[in-house]
Amino acid sequence: MSLQGKGSNHNFNPFENDENDSFLDFQNSDYEKITGQKPEQATEKLEENERASKLQEAIEKENSSAYEDLDDFIYRQNKKRTRTSGRHHHHRRRSPSKLSPGHTASKIRKNHKHKHHFHRHHHRKRFKRWQKIALGIIAALLALIIAATATLVVMINLGKNSLLDKSGLNIDVPGNAEAGDNGNIIYYNGYKYQYNENITSILCMGIDKDTLNKIDGEIGAGGDADSIFVATIDLQNGKTKFINISRDTMAEIGIYSTSGSYVGEKKAQLALAYAYGDGRETSCHNEIVAVRQLLYNIPINSYLSLDMQGIGAINDAMGGITVISPETIGDFKQGQTYTLMGSMAQSYVRSRSHATVEGNSLRMERQKSYLESFGSSLVEKTKSDLMTPINIYNTASPYICTNIDANKVSYLAYNAVRGNYKGVEIKNLPGKVKQGEKYAEFYIDETKCFELFLDVYYTKVGKA
Question: Which is nearest to 275 in space by CA: 336, 340, 351, 214?
């Protein structure tokens, strides 16, 4: 039996009878028994597979065309977006080769959602001209405030360092006391005393320039220091004490000629030390030297002299000072309350009776009441306006000579308003006054004076 059909035909058809080949000679019923299906069903299956193959080819062709259309669409859309100012996020497109079979164009259109982001374009608000000017003024004021605050902080720190300079500490104690470490430690009456490094001293002088003074042929034209007191301020606890020194206190003072030449020393009234100078810096320096010798060489690195003519202006800058007069003199009655203005303030502070040697001591009591009231008023005003001391300083400047600069003033003001002001305690330097050949002369009580000195500048720390 040959497996070859008719002639050279190799297209085998199982449904065609081959009369020369008995292997292919079987009935349709036999085919149905072997395959389980009828011959016409096999033909239909074959035709169906051919149609499916052709359909798949058409789908793939359609897919390719659809993606080409999609690419073109995306490209055109991107070109449009590049011409706009808003930013868009571009989606990465997938090539057709990476898509799964059966991913048709319709599915692409359905599943591919291109998100468009709508951006709100913010336009700057345009200000009117007056608004721009107002904003500029506000900015300038803020800059000035910041600069002023920073400057004030620096001034306060510099002022503190200058006020607490104790480089000149070299205490010269009396014979019944002993000093150690240049006076940082003092032993007296069986006790040990420690110097308070938080204290600063300011020599304050009220000057009367209406008189000339003559000692041994030398004329002093600087004027007299009619009021002399040392203001001591504890910058840690705020305690302020004034040591009020009588102008008539007998002390060793430096004598200078009108040309400024140093002549020597002479025991005379303390007020005259100011007279033998130029009426300004050298006069202040001469007064400081005399006061330091009187107070055991305590450091005094700040001074202020005030012409009595300026009292009225400073008093009025404070809005007036209210006092209770401790004596009857001129227009003032003992026990009466007065709000001093202008020349009335100068008269209250400056007047003294020449009918008694106690005239200056009584005037010192009036000056004490004035200073106490002035200090309280100054602190209250400074609490509401930190620039008050600077304003008073500027008002007084034509009448004063001082080395208290704005730095020191700023720190003293800051120290007072932060709650460190406890009022003023004024203590008179103890002693007795007697009539000299021409003028009243005041002699200190050495023991009481030294004990006052220890009370003001030192702290008792234990037994010796």
Answer: 214
The total number of residues shown for the chain amounts to 464
Quick one: tokens of 123? 């336009």
Task: Check pLDDT > 90 for residue 442.
Answer: yes
Contact call for residues 185 and 196 (beta carbons, < 8 A)? no
3-state secondary structure (DSSP) of residue 142: helix
Strands (E), 314-383: 321-324, 337-340
Q: Where are the alpha helices (DSSP H) in 263-354?
A: 272-275, 281-294, 311-317, 343-350
Strands (E), 308-391: 321-324, 337-340
Determine contact, residues 357/433, Cβ cutoff 8 Å: yes
pLDDT at 408 over 60: yes
pLDDT bucket at 353, cuts 50 / 70 / 90: confident
Count other Cβ atoms within 10 Å, centred on residue 411: 23
Proportion of the chain in helix, strand, coil states, percent, rounded to 5 = 45, 20, 35
197 phi, psi to nearest 5 deg = -75, -5
Beta strands in 191-336 (DSSP E): 191-195, 199-208, 213-215, 218-220, 224-234, 240-245, 250-256, 262-269, 302-307, 321-324
> Is 60 exceeded by the pLDDT of residue 352?
yes
What pLDDT, on a 0 to 100 scale, did the predictor assign at position 159?
Answer: 66
Task: Say if residue 87 is exposed, middle or buried (CB neighbours under 10 Å; 0-12, 13-18, 19+).
Answer: exposed
Per residue in 446-460, pLDDT (tens digit) is 999 999 999 999 999
Question: Using 50, 70 and 90 to split pLDDT, how confident is the model at 146?
Answer: low
Which of 346-354's residues contact partners 24+ apart within 8 Å by CB, and which partners?
346/308, 346/309, 346/311, 346/312, 346/315, 348/323, 349/206, 349/227, 349/308, 349/311, 350/206, 350/208, 350/226, 350/308, 350/311, 353/329
Task: In whole angstroms, give the CA distance from residue 459 to residue 446.
Answer: 20
Residue whose tokens read 């007020």: 271
DSSP 318: T
Q: Side by side, which strands form the sheet with 240-245?
A: 400-402, 302-307, 199-208, 224-234, 240-245, 424-428
Residue of 361, 291, 354 whose CA lies nearest to 327: 361
**Nearby residues of 141 by Cβ (< 8 Å), 6 or more positions away:** none
Residue predicted with more confidence, 197 or 412: 197
